[in-house]
Amino acid sequence: MDQSAGIMVGDKASQSHLVVNRNVGEKLHVWSSPEGGFKIDIGKQIFCNRSLNMRNIVAVGFDMDYTLAQYKPETFESLAYEGTIRKLVYNLGYPKELLEWTFDWKYMVRGLVLDKKRGNILKMDRHKYVKVAYHGFRELSKEDKVGTYGNTLLRDSFDEPDYALIDTLFSLAEAYLFAQLVDFRDNNPGKVPEGTDYAHMYKDVRAAVDLCHRDGTLKQMVAKEPRRYINEDTSIVPMLQMLRDSGRSTFLVTNSLWDYTNIVMNFLCASRTMDGGITGNFDWLQYFDVVITGSAKPGFFHEDNRANIFEVDPESGMLLNTDNGTPMPQVGNASPKLLPNKLNKSCRVFQGGSVGHLHKLLSIESSSQVLYVGDHIYGDILRSKKVLGWRTMLVVPELEKEVELLWELRDMRKQLRLLRNERDLVEDQIHHLTWSLKFESLCDDERQKMTSALGELESQRDQVRLAHQRAQRECHQKFHKIWGQLMKTGYQNSRFAHQVERFACLYTSQVSNLSLYSPDKYYRPSEDFMPHEFHILPL
Predict the structure, then answer these.
(1) Which residues partner with 249 through β-bridges?
(2) H helices of 294-345, where?
(3) What is the pTM of this model?
(4) pLDDT of 497-516, one tens digit each?
(5) What strands, in cross-sheet order, belong to the sheet with 319-323?
(6) Where are the beta strands (DSSP E) in 298-390?
(7) What CA dihedral angle connects 173, 174, 178 and 184, to 10 degrees?
(8) DSSP three-state, residue 44
(9) E strands within 13-169?
(10) Phi, psi of 374 (to 5 degrees)
(11) Rounded (5°) CA angle 181-185-187
């Protein structure tokens, strides 16, 4: 594509140099390199909801799972699904025929809501109106959908305990399994444990997932063969190095414990041998000032959290007592045991603690000086933004494909707007003629002409409506055959998009996109438009 055909998305004024780069094989260069700083593919751009001047940021923090470490859904989600099935069968008494089930890792998407009591899977817009609904894998009719979710005197909040939010990529496998169990119960009522309703089945799925985590099944498999389950990203180390060279502190806060964290981060950051193998060591610690494992987010973000913080010996994994992060003497010793600094002179590794400990360790004076990057709307972004006032960046891997499709389908979307406008115009004419026939004094000839014109307009309206519905369905299925566009539900922002807009200062498709921008960049949002401005002001 010619550079002049670029589209300015999100940060329109300050990103005018960004273009849609259709040469997908072209290598993207780190901003600080001689080749960097010129053009950024639309799928790699960082989009801005709230102004953020990076010059005011003194520390940049990262989650690990699904942020720095992007898991491959076709292998990792399948592994999680199979492990959950086995727990349901061998630990919770479900029929062995479940072991023959298969997992379609492309079927579910983030932003869905599970109705535990009714066995339904819902997609709704930002106003919490249900637009797409399935019972198991059977689509609900418009009448059933409206009858269940649209005819109540009080608006449903669609929150826990009756509903479950599918807001992480890790939740996709359990959502798919829940839909399978709903269909299985409906079709085989005698094969599920007696008294097991839809809500109980969801509870069992969650219990099975927790069992997989507790016995280490998933992490053991990933640790044996990380390349099979985690995407390699060669831009992570240059990104971290650039941030540190710019004078920022960097930190890692993860719920994973030290042993697994070290394996994953070593895979992501360690140098490779000539045969592609990984050189196993602790070199990756040089890219961080503080690493906190076993953080128990989102509770970690509460400043009144009184959790103890222990220092971790990287070589042995041994935990040492600390006084709010300061080494303290063990019983019987007059002075504290200091860890050898042969591994790394700057980074310290901890387990547990709270955000108060982190602020002290990094000498943070104001929470607005921290930028935290994560993948979980509630576990990472909402708490850190709403409770602390940290600046936030949400990683949305699905965004890369979505914005590229938006670019490809821009003509189709324009046609949809034209059809909608035409439908509105025809309906206005119908209403005017209907009103005239009902209330005006007309001679027989005038009435006959108006009635004939009304019939033609009604036929035209039906044709336009059918054409619009077909085009809208085609556009919907281009993004996902069932759930459509991640950030839209019909013409409204989806509930997921609404959460992104509310709580993420920045959002992007992968964490290493930070390496494509200046570490001192001033991110500015595009201008908001209300409906009365949309057709007046040029976009």
Answers:
(1) 59
(2) none
(3) 0.86
(4) 999 999 899 999 999 999 99
(5) 46-48, 506-508, 391-395, 370-374, 59-62, 249-253, 290-293, 348-352, 309-312, 319-323, 326-327
(6) 309-312, 319-323, 326-327, 348-352, 370-374
(7) 60
(8) helix
(9) 46-48, 52-53, 59-62, 112-115, 120-124, 130-135, 138-139, 163-166
(10) -150, 175
(11) 115
